[in-house]
Amino acid sequence: MNQNNQQNTISILAFFMQRLFQSASLKRWFMVLLFLGGTATIEARQKPNMIVYLSDDLGYLDVSVYGASVVKTPILQQLSQEGMTFDNAFVASPSCAPSRAALLTGLMPAKNGAEVNHAFPAPDIPYLIGQLKDNGYSVFAFGKVAHYGGNEKCGFDFHHDEQVNLYENISGYFDSTKVEGPVCIFVGDRRPHVWWTEKMDYLPKEVDLPPYFIDTEPTREHRARYYTDVSGMDSEMGQVLDYFDNMLGSNTLTLFTSDHGAQWPFGKWNLYDAGIRTPLIVKWPTKIQAGSRTAAMVSWVDIMPTLLEASESAVPEGLDGKSFMEVLKGNTSTFRKEIFTTHTGDGNFNVYPMRSIRDERYKLIINLAPNAYHTNHSDILRKDGAGAFWDSWDAQAVQDPLAAAVVQHYFIRPAVEFYDLSNDPNEQHNLATNAAYQPRIAKMKAQLTEWMNAQGDEQKLYKQPYYFPGPKPNGETIKERQNEH
């Protein structure tokens, strides 16, 4: 086409465009289409990327954000300064598999079917990952997100199950993979799960111990190793979050939490706050006020519904969890009135089921097998880097009545425990037989019973407990029981 013909064609097109826009109705439709197209693009861009960072067996008091004075967690401190810190976040169950199943389904253990450790939800129970994918999200998992071997069941677009070298695995994958659309990335660090590292970046004589521990040299050495793993987790998380900052940009919601307390006496496997209360920090620039803090009580089953609302994904009906987005926005300082938690057991090592209800001040614990020993892997196997310090506790108890009382309290529990948390945050003074509290105890018992019935909780014993006055279980006892099956 020569130059004159090109000019003629342009002139003709210009003439028809001018006549088109002289029609008011056509002009309005054209502008509407432009607006709608632009709005759709803006809305798509506004969907936040999301990072869910999970620690494993981290006690909420073992983080500087929650008052720890010895162990150092500068990355979590920075995250807290940039987001909202929850002072009253609780897991559904203080063992890995039931806790993570509750997170990923929005249902409590009795409803989703993962009541005992090393269990998974029933086959007909959907993971909420599908809701994000239906809304256009690509969903990834690195490390321990579901319980061991469970990432494949959740419907992630990609999962890398190796639990070490998280930063290298993450950066290596995304450096070589083109990712489309908004993403939700789950990262699960196994630390500070046992076995704890042999390194001691902290001096045993300088670590602090909870007031209900027995102060022995092996306990302090194990505590130093545990703190080293806590700081190691925090440090690598800094590398990962820096990488994601560069990759994802500012419209990113970052959530950090832990699946339950640490495997110390009265922590993991127990319904004391040291077992069920967890760190929870959420950052979302321009959406969440930096440096804010809330006393609102939330549960792990609430996390996924909150992420679904943040991403404008569909939230299924019938969940136990509910979104706490209004708390994140600063529109309310309250959420749940009660927190319910359950623990059922872990194979042959841990057969001591219990249930609890907690409000802002009081906690009621029902031990379903009070005529049996409370016991688990830690005190049974007593392995280096896990529970080897138990030998020193037994030795101390022989000569020290106070130490003997701690050991007795650990192994022998009453049927009912009731604590005034405002005056007894360490839950050391059982008020279950105190006459002044009987009306409140009766009310909370009724609430707990009603909740268990609604959950379909059969209070089932999956294994036979270790009844006293028989011998406490040990490695040989466990082997004998395993051989029987």
UniProtKB/TrEMBL annotation:
InterPro entries: Alkaline_phosphatase_core_sf, GAG_Ulvan_Degrading_Sulfatases, Sulfatase_CS, Sulfatase_N
CDD domains the record matches: SGSH (cd16027)
Chain residue ranges for the region called Disordered: 462-485
Record GO terms (molecular function): hydrolase activity
Coiled-coil zones: none
Pfam families attached to this UniProt entry: Sulfatase
Keyword Hydrolase recorded: yes
Domain Sulfatase N-terminal: 48-310
Keywords: Hydrolase
Keyword Hydrolase: yes
Family, per entry: Belongs to the sulfatase family.
Name of the molecule in the record: Arylsulfatase A family protein
